[in-house]
Amino acid sequence: TLHHSVRMLCTQTKSKDSSTLTVRPQLVLSVSISRHSSYFFWNVEALMFLITLMAGGTFACARDASDRLGLSLTLVLTSVAFKFVISADLPKISYLTVLDVYVLVCFAFLGLVVLENSLC
């Protein structure tokens, strides 16, 4: 319930903290907020892991197969499209979260797979 996560404290300012030595009423509100991370684990991290894991499947193809590069590029496009979809559910903030770093590491791994498959 909401009343357990909101705390309110009614106090007064100290006269020594004021340049005019005035005491004023003060209201301090504290709100505790938590987010359930299991949603993001199952809907973002697990799916990005599976997409990245599928990149390992490109090495099961023959080394000279043209499908190898096509498959790895398809996985890159899939992960980029997935990133656009999940960005609608994530808050717009100016710094990287752990989830953002995880997705970027998955992109880097996919990029390495594409590089490996394009050099063969």
Walk me through what this model shows.
The model has no long low-confidence stretch (mean pLDDT 87). Helix content is 52%, strand content 12%. A two-stranded antiparallel ribbon has the order 1-2. It starts with 5 loop residues before the first strand and ends with a helix. It has helices at 38-55, 66-87, 98-119, and strands at residues 6-12, 25-31. It is mainly alpha-helical. The protein is elongated, with a radius of gyration of 25 Å. The chain has 3 helices and 2 strands, in the order E-E-H-H-H.
How much of the sequence is in beta strands? 5-15%
Strand order of the largest sheet: 1-2
What is the tally of beta strands? 2
How much is the average pLDDT?
87
Q: Specify the overall morphology.
A: elongated
Largest sheet: 2 strands, antiparallel
What is the CA–CA distance across the termini?
59 Å
- Give helix and strand order, one letter per element, not per position: EEHHH
Helices and strands: which structural class? mainly alpha
Please count the helical segments: 3
Helix content: 40-55%
Low-confidence segments, ≥5 residues, pLDDT <50? none
Rg result: 25 Å
Kindly list the characteristics that best describe this protein.
120 residues; elongated; 12% strand; single chain; mainly alpha; two-stranded antiparallel sheet
Short description, anyone?
With 120 residues, this protein is mostly helical.
Topology overview:
Layout: E1 6-12, E2 25-31, H1 38-55, H2 66-87, H3 98-119
Antiparallel strand pairs: 1-2
Helix pairs in contact: 1-2, 1-3, 2-3
